[in-house]
Write a structure and sequence with these properties.
The chain is of the alpha/beta class. It is built from ten helices and eight strands. An eight-stranded mixed beta sheet has the order 1-2-4-3-5-6-7-8, sandwiched between helices.
């Protein structure tokens, strides 16, 4: 005869299984929607040369203007909460940047949660960077004109990459462009978000953020270790472009991040876009302010590379 305790344990395990199955089903649908949205919401397609590479399981897509000249290189780490997003989802954005900035753009298909831990994602970002600097001749890139760009989770990945390579004797990026990046995220910041005047930030934004974090770092107790960056005058950042949205739980921490960089002597170009939400850059094909923000990013890259 099954005891009440055994029955409770059995039901608990079944519930865990159903939760996992439900999460996987929802995630699959969300990833598909994200991928298909590029053609509907993104900027117009551009005439470019594109090539796909897969090295040791890590996929890249190279976007290159129709020229034989040696060009600047922009490595793009896409957003999506470390769980969704892909080269396909950001295809139109990377096309636009490559065409307008007249640069080689490298899209990186890093591994994502919940299938992989965030340490794997960050390792992929580093491997991708090393692949690019070791294959500049193959892609026709200029070693003195490299930028790393990331939006949202991709911004966090780009910052983490800089912290890992800034002391190494290798080719380093000249610029860093961060579009509403995840920075300095800790328990204190989450508490501030919950007191925000905006209902969308206080309720919806924080709920989504907490959900994503729980499925990426295995619990909030690890948040300080995984998402807080230490600042030191010994860490010299390249020139940085920072972009924020008005309705975004991350904006407060990004503003603080920019002030810390300036205090440390870093050149920072900061742009805030009113009446926008987190992720608005993906609507550049249907939103004037998103299109302007994407153009501002291109101008920064083109003028400084």
């Amino acid at each position: 005869m099954i005891s009440p305790l055994d029955m409770c344990m059995f039901l608990k395990e079944k519930l865990k299984l159903y939760n996992v199955l439900l999460l996987n089903a929802c995630l699959k649908i969300l990833r598909t929607i994200f991928d298909l949205s590029a053609e509907i919401l993104g900027p117009k397609s551009q005439a470019l040369e594109t090539k796909n590479f897969e090295i040791n399981g890590l996929k890249y897509k190279i976007y290159r203007p129709l020229t034989n000249h040696i060009l600047p290189v922009i490595i793009y780490y896409h957003g999506g909460g470390w769980m969704v997003g892909s080269i396909k989802a950001y295809d139109r954005i990377m096309q636009y940047i490559s065409f307008k900035a007249q640069a080689v753009v490298v899209g990186v298909e890093y591994r994502k949660a919940p299938e992989h831990k965030i340490s794997v994602t960050l390792l992929d970002a580093k491997l991708a960077y090393f692949w690019v600097i070791n294959n500049l001749k193959l892609i026709g890139g200029n070693k003195n004109k490299i930028a790393i760009v990331g939006d949202s989770a991709g911004g966090h990945i780009a910052i983490n990459l800089w912290h890992k390579i800034h002391r190494l004797n290798i080719i380093k990026p000249k610029l860093m462009a961060l579009i509403y990046p995840v920075v300095d995220l800790n328990i204190h910041e989450l508490r501030l978000m919950k007191k925000h005047n905006s209902f969308l930030i206080r309720k919806l934004g924080v709920c989504i953020l907490l959900y994503v974090l729980r499925h990426n770092i295995g619990g909030l107790k690890k948040i300080n270790f995984a998402f807080t960056f230490k600042y030191s005058n010994k860490i010299k950042y390249p020139k940085v472009f920072l972009m924020t949205a008005q309705i975004d739980p991350l904006t407060h921490s990004i503003e603080k991040f920019g002030k810390k960089l300036k205090k440390a002597g870093c050149t920072v170009l900061y742009k805030h876009y009113p009446k926008t939400i987190h992720g608005f850059i993906n609507f550049a094909g249907v939103s004037k302010i998103a299109a302007q923000a994407l153009e501002d990013l291109v101008i920064f890259l083109k003028n400084n590379l």
